[in-house]
Amino acid sequence: MAEDFEIDTADLERRMEGAIASLRVEFSSLRTGRASASLLEPVMVDAYGQMTPINQVGTVNVPEPRMVTINVWDKGLVNKVEKAIRNSGLGINPQMNGTIIMLPIPELNEERRRDLTKVASTYAENARVAIRNVRRDGMDQIKKAKNDGMSEDDQKFWETEVQDLTNKFIGRVDETLETKQAEIMQV
Question: Are residues 18 and 54 in the same domain?
Answer without folding.
Answer: no
